[in-house]
Design a protein that fits this description.
Distance between the termini: 55 Å
Radius of gyration: 23 Å
Number of helices: 10
Order of helices and strands: HEEEEHEHEHEEEHEHEHEHEEEHH
Strand content: 15-25%
Number of strands: 15
Largest sheet: 5 strands, mixed
Length: 274
């Protein structure tokens, strides 16, 4: 009986030892990912470059926006130089998961969803988000609800492959849904009368209203959905995402994130004590 008990205890000890070795290897692998970035001195960051004021690529090739600055701050804390790699809403998930990797993580107007978290990692939220609309200023009084939009004569324009298209198709059964490849071109097309409504986010709409007097966002303060925006990465990047979460937490606590939001006239909803 004692002999059998000793064998049992040895088996348990062996299993614990094996588990510790496995955990150690996994941790080493994760830490190695961070060290690799530091040693290379460069971190590759995917972004769509079509989503003012979060991520936009000028014709000169220069990127700017809230998400771009946040990515630069993450890179700085890693001691690495950021190198931006253009992706698209249609190919975003495939580009994140591609092997060999196209970039270390993706940033921009990426909403945190359970569907994305099934196959990828998402960071903690750093920006409030929600679906709203852009329309022509003279039409602003016409649209007070989804019911006002969901009419056969209303043309709703969205970019392909992202959550805007998904939202439109799920919630609008009568309106005409028009797909336009270039997200950044849609506000001007609305202003010109090529469509009546753009499904967009509360992060994007204020910029276009402020920079084009022909446009309005009548439901800005009452978005259809409520969510947050975060960084997207493959599941093997857990150490990197942990580092990003730490950076986000530090920026919330110091007030740095709030200041960055104010710079781009974005909604800040986090307590500075976080």
């Amino acid at each position: 009986m004692i002999f059998g008990r000793k064998i049992h205890l040895r088996s348990i000890a062996a299993l614990i030892f094996a588990a510790l070795i496995f955990a150690s290897c996994a941790t080493t692998k994760e830490i190695g990912e961070i060290e690799k970035i530091k040693q290379n001195g460069t971190i590759f960051i995917g972004t769509t470059g079509d989503y003012r004021p979060l991520s936009f690529k000028e014709k000169s090739g220069e990127y700017w926006g809230f998400g771009i600055e946040l990515a630069e701050k993450i890179a700085f804390r890693l001691g690495a130089k950021p190198q931006f790699v253009q992706t698209s809403w249609k190919t975003l998930s495939a580009d994140v998961l591609e092997e060999p990797q196209k970039f270390d993580f993706a940033i921009g107007g990426i909403t945190i969803t359970d569907e994305r978290k099934k196959t990828m990692l998402m960071s903690d939220g750093y920006l409030a988000n929600g679906k709203t609309i852009l329309c022509r200023r003279e039409d602003a009084q016409k649209f007070n609800s989804l019911e006002d939009i969901d009419k056969s004569e209303i043309r709703v324009m969205v970019n392909p492959g992202g959550l805007n298209e998904k939202f439109a198709k799920a919630n609008l059964k009568n309106a005409q849904i028009l797909i336009h490849e270039q997200n950044e071109e849609i506000p001007n097309l609305i202003a010109e009368g090529k469509a009546d409504i753009m499904i967009t986010e509360i992060t994007e709409a204020p910029y276009y209203v402020a920079t084009d007097e022909r446009l309005a966002s009548p439901l800005l303060e009452n978005p259809f959905t409520h969510g947050e925006i975060g960084v997207l990465a493959k599941k093997s990047k857990s150490a990197l995402v942990d580092f990003i979460n730490k950076t986000i937490a530090e920026m919330k606590k110091s007030g740095e994130l709030k200041t960055l939001c104010e710079k781009y006239s974005l909604v800040y909803v986090y307590d500075s004590k976080e």
